[in-house]
Amino acid sequence: MGSVSLKIGDGTARFKRASWCSSSLNLLMLFSVITTNLFAWYAFTYAPKNQILHHQMPRNLSLISEHVSLILKEIDSSQKKLAQMENELLEYESIDLSKPNIVNELKMFLQHHVLPLGKDSRTGITEMVASVGHSCEKSMDLLSQYMNYKVNGQCPNDWSLGQRLILGGCEPLPRRRCFAKAINKFGLQPFPVSLWENVSEKIYSWSGLGCKNLACLNSKKLNRDCAGCFDIVKGYETQKYVKPRGKNDFLINDVLAMGNGGIRIGFDIGGGSGTFAARMAEKNVTVVTATLNVDAPFNEFIAARGLLPLYLSLDHRFPFYDNVFDLVHASNGLDGSVRPEKLEFLMFDIDRILRAGGLFWLDNFYCSNDDRKAMLTRLIERFGYKKLQWVVGDKINGSGKLEVYLSAVLQKPVRV
């Protein structure tokens, strides 16, 4: 099993993979349930061998009632103890606001705020509860540093600290009562000219990054899908999705044709500098691109192109309702470094937001070995998707070695 996110109380609880401790706990809970049920059965069915006289019945019923009452109390006590043991084994505990290292702003944000007019008749809630990633408990020093600011003043220039917390599972971050730095976004081009024209580098935030300009970024391979991906004027980005470099590279027009004209909105996972969304925008398809600012100002660059960035990690449940997207495109976000358990949870979330009949475009998934490819194939087959296109091909990496990649276009079935 992989990590799971659940909304519990003040925020999001994240659970680790099951271990031998949790397995033992499950056996203990099963034994407790069986034992208490046997006691209850014995209490209700036991009778003396001698014939029970009529005047003894009230006394026996009273004894049975006492037995049952004691058993119920024991069950309740056992359940509470087992729940406490489970929380300890799974490392789940609520954020202790009494700790001295927690700043006041964090305490205020996490406090429950009772509705002034009582229970809301429409939603049924009686208080407003803050939402914050439960793994933040493990990074309280960093979180307190993040929440240490002047109220109504300028926010610290600490976006990299916030991203560090997100990458550590502290997501969503708490809200803050300070003003974010507002950079003058001068020179922005109108849409659709903005899709393929660079603007001044001064509109991006370079703090916390190794590179301080686009030329530096274009000289590096930031990830498997981003080698020179910030060159949208003369680089390969201008040919991506319209001119293939290999059999694994599908073209926008070909994939849209598989959707029979029903592709209107899409979601791109790990979309680099936003080129996929830009090409789709040219086809009147609106695409939301999910990415973080790892080693580059991806979100700001995508927004400067007139596209929609979503600052979100892959550990976070997608903030969309079920069955809303016509197309989901996944590339760098599903590379070979993702653990099978994590990939399985991610695939189920992708399936959740993709409508029936919608297309899942798996774009150059890196298969580090045959086992990895077989694992992904078995996982996809579990969903019952129709394989509209399925290509396994080799590419030569920077070291001159062959790497295996899988590209596919899959159609989600109708489930009733």
TrEMBL record:
GO terms for molecular function: methyltransferase activity. It comes from the Eukaryota. It is found in: Endomembrane system; Membrane. GO terms for cellular component: endomembrane system; membrane. Pfam families: Methyltransf_29. It is a single-pass membrane protein; Single-pass type II membrane protein. Keywords: Coiled coil, Glycoprotein, Membrane, Methyltransferase, Signal-anchor, Transferase, Transmembrane, Transmembrane helix. Residues 68-95 form a coiled coil. The chain crosses the membrane at residues 24-44. GO terms for biological process: methylation. Belongs to the methyltransferase superfamily. This is Methyltransferase. It comes from Lithospermum erythrorhizon. The lineage of its organism: Eukaryota, Viridiplantae, Streptophyta, Embryophyta, Tracheophyta.
